[in-house]
Design a protein that fits this description.
single chain, about 775 residues, mainly beta, seven-stranded mixed β-sheet, five-stranded mixed β-sheet, 4 helices, about 10% helix
Length: about 775
């Protein structure tokens, strides 16, 4: 087999739709042509391969829809007599690329896009058409898709936003934009981009290669225009005609710099402030406008002139940036009617290099408006004084107040009775004289604090107050007296001249020169044979004994009246009595006993021992009495005889119902044994189950049945759980101690009454009528 060789290694081959091989130059028209680029040639020996083909085909990307011939495969075995078949395999074989089995022509069946896939690797083989047996080994080749300018530039990150300070210099960089082109940057100029500004001139410029946007105009002012819209274009093919382009927008914002000072809208401003405006309250507002924004627009206000008395202050409202004028001191229309202030507004932040004055001033005229003010006291606090015990209506002092207004209304005075609850003072409503309504006692209250109010006659709502402190001056109206209740003790074996007691005095008064007391015995005892007094020189005296013959048997107690006089004007005095007891003392002078009964006591027994002995005797007597009483109670029966256990139980029902529960109104069993009141006893209004012992006469210590019944009745009346029925019960047992026995006529021991009831008349008024009834019954029987 003769081999076919290609001598042109890198010649361009163009295959027509008819399969004819023609040599042409590279075409760039709209019609897609197949170009066969021979990257090399491969010659197979006759023993291995009888055919030769290109190792690489170059095909421009196209958009279809008709199939395009890529190239043709040929082998030396194809002489016409041998049935051969060309087979294609690899990337896109059968889908994108198809081969004519007989001629070996390869066609592209679908759209080829380099940006999606730039090259395809396939294998070709020659087989027997009848047996499908391979006639030669398979060989690999590449189909490369060549780029054309079919993608415009794109701004992936657009649209853009940028900012730059106002008044920036020309050439100041604003931002940088970036466009991308999907075409092959290596092949031709399809991906070479050039930038330009379509909108935004003359304010901005852009570098055509680096795409950096810069300031192009000097003195751009934010206050004139804050935002600019710039349109940027990117064009491929180096910007030449026929290239594709893309655009984006850049929004440029000028940021504020402090290039404008604050400015008052009016250089002169007027305010009217009432004189009764409270301290700290706003009296007016001023504002300096600043064209800047944010921190650059913040200003501070100051009063730089016209406020020599320091009456006003001005502060800045952080929200509105207004200067608020406030009072630091109260205004007085009568003193000063107007003020002229010079107020300055200055930026907090400013550029010192700018050289511009970032401040402004304005003149503020303030007119004080007259207001109806309350009366004003001549002093906020008055201090007065008055003697104690001064007579009623004594003038203590005078308070004065006036109306500060120009009209000068009259003033009336009153005492706030909340500060004078006892109404000890009065005030003259016209002239403010304070007088006494009650006498004062310094020893009770030394100071009195009251509040006096002053009110305008024409406007009662205008009230002012003043505190009046009244001091009560002391006079000598209290007599001195002993400092305490003295009780002196005198030993029987005392020596003459012995100090029995030291006595001092006190005085409720408080003289300016201090206290000085004079002590003396009453005139009747100036020649007292038993005691005398001695002045100690310190407002105290010592009581001395004159002899040593004091005896308790003779006189146990002495009373020594002493007169105490002060040095007041007039002097006050009082008589105080010193009690002196005569006592028995030890040799050391220690008091042992002051009672005269001590002399009759046996020698060797003290009073405590006698008390203990007497207590033991009384205790023994109590024990003996209790023992005898218990023995007597033990010998008495607790249950009465059955034959005398007769009683009548009459129950009256005031309403229906109740039944057998009515019989539980009272517990009669307690009458069978009064000593068992606190224990449980069975009911006796039904047939008893117990046999009782014969009743004996009750002793004198028996229970008072009448009192017992009254107690039980009271308990039943107040018991909320008792049946709500009225019961009348007559009891046959009268209690221990009753010599009458049973008074019931039921179940008596004999049918004939042989008893004598005359003794009932001796029991007193309660049983007298009963005795008469039984006596009448006996008379009728005999009759």
């Amino acid at each position: 087999m003769q081999a076919l060789t290609f001598k042109e290694v890198r010649s361009n081959l163009c295959l027509s739709s008819k399969g004819e091989l023609q040599s042409k130059s590279l075409q760039t028209g709209s019609t897609a042509l197949l170009r066969g680029l021979v990257e090399g040639q491969r010659i197979l020996s006759r023993a291995k391969r009888g055919w030769v083909w290109n190792q690489m085909f170059v095909l421009e990307e196209f958009s279809g829809p008709d199939p395009i011939l890529v190239g043709r495969l040929h082998t030396d075995l194809d002489v016409g007599s041998t049935p051969i078949k060309y087979v294609l395999a690899g990337e896109g074989a059968g889908t994108i690329f198809a081969i004519n089995e007989i001629t070996g022509d390869i066609h592209a069946m679908k759209r080829l896009d380099r940006e999606e896939k730039a090259e395809y690797t396939l294998t070709a083989q020659v087989t027997n058409r009848d047996t499908d047996q391979p006639l030669e080994p398979p060989s690999e080749f590449i189909i490369k898709v060549q780029d054309i300018n079919d993608n415009p530039p794109q701004f992936v990150e657009g649209p853009y936003r940028a900012s730059v300070p106002e008044t920036s210099q020309v050439g100041t960089s604003v931002t940088r934009v970036t466009a991308t082109d999907a075409d092959d940057p290596v092949y031709g100029n399809s991906a070479k981009l050039v930038y330009s500004i379509l909108e935004g001139q003359p304010y901005f410029s852009i570098d055509p290669n680096t795409a950096i946007i810069k300031i192009a105009l000097h003195g751009m002012d934010r206050e004139m225009r804050e935002e600019y819209l710039v349109v940027i274009q990117a064009k491929d093919m180096g910007g030449h005609m026929g290239g594709l382009s893309g655009t984006t927008t850049v929004t440029v914002t000028l940021t504020d710099v402090n290039d404008n000072p604050p400015k008052f809208s009016k250089s002169k401003q007027n305010f009217v402030i009432p004189e009764d405006l409270a301290i700290g309250q706003p009296g007016g507002k001023v504002k300096a406008n600043d064209r800047d924004i944010g921190e650059n627009a913040k200003s501070t206000y100051n009063i730089i002139d016209g406020d020599e008395r320091d009456v006003f202050e001005i502060t800045t409202d952080a929200q509105t940036q207004e200067g608020i004028l406030r009072l630091k001191k109260p205004l007085n229309f009568e003193t000063k009617k107007s003020y002229t202030l010079k107020v300055e507004a200055a930026n907090i932040r400013f550029d010192p290099n700018s050289g511009a004055p970032f401040k402004d001033t304005a003149t503020v005229k303030i007119a004080v408006e007259d207001s109806d003010e309350p009366p004003v006291f001549s002093k906020p606090t008055f201090v007065l004084q008055v003697d104690e015990n001064a007579p009623i209506n004594t003038v203590v002092g005078t308070v004065t107040a006036r109306d500060p207004d120009v009209t000068g209304s009259l003033v009336r005075y009153f005492i706030d009775r909340h500060t004078d609850l006892e109404r000890q003072f009065n005030v003259n409503v016209d002239d403010g004289k304070i007088t006494l309504a009650k006498p004062l006692d310094r020893e009770t209250d030394m100071w009195h604090n009251i509040t006096v109010t002053a009110t305008e006659i024409r406007n009662h709502s205008q009230i002012s107050r003043a505190t009046v402190a009244i001091r009560v001056l002391d006079i000598n109206d209290n007599a001195p007296e002993f400092a305490t209740e003295y009780e002196a003790f005198l030993c029987e074996n005392g020596k003459p001249g012995q100090v029995i007691q030291t006595v001092s005095a006190v005085d409720k008064d408080d003289p300016i020169q201090g206290h000085y007391f004079e002590y003396r015995l009453i005139p009747e005892m100036l020649n007292n044979p038993n005691f005398t007094i001695k002045n100690n020189g310190d407002n105290s005296i010592s009581v001395l004994a004159k002899h040593d013959t004091f005896r308790r048997q003779k006189q146990e107690m002495y009373f020594l009246p002493i007169i105490v006089t002060d040095n007041g004007n007039p002097p006050m005095s009082s008589t105080n009595t010193l009690t002196i007891r005569v006592c028995g003392c030890s040799r050391e002078g220690i008091v042992q006993s002051c009672n005269v009964e001590a002399y009759v006591l046996p020698i060797g027994l003290s009073m405590g021992a006698l008390i203990a002995i007497l207590a033991c005797i009384i205790l023994l007597l109590v024990i003996v009495v209790l023992f005898v009483t218990l023995r007597r109670h033990k010998n008495k029966p607790l249950i009465i005889k059955d034959d005398e256990d007769v009683r009548e139980n009459i129950i009256r029902y005031d309403d229906e119902g109740g039944g057998e529960e009515d019989t539980e109104a009272f517990d009669i069993a307690t009458l069978q044994n009064p000593d068992g009141i606190n224990g449980y006893l069975p009911r006796k209004d039904i047939k008893p189950d117990l046999q009782f012992m014969p009743r004996q006469s009750s002793g004198p210590n028996g229970v008072d049945v009448d009192e017992f019944i009254n107690v039980r009745l009271h308990e039943a009346d107040n018991d909320p759980t008792a049946p709500p029925y009225d019961s009348i019960q007559i009891y046959g047992y009268e209690g221990r101690g009753s010599i009458a026995g049973s008074l019931s006529s039921l179940e008596t021991a004999s049918s004939d009454s042989d008893q004598n009831y005359d003794y009932l008349r001796e029991w007193g008024p309660r049983f007298r009528r009963l005795g008469e009834l039984y006596s009448v019954g006996e008379s009728d029987k005999e009759t």
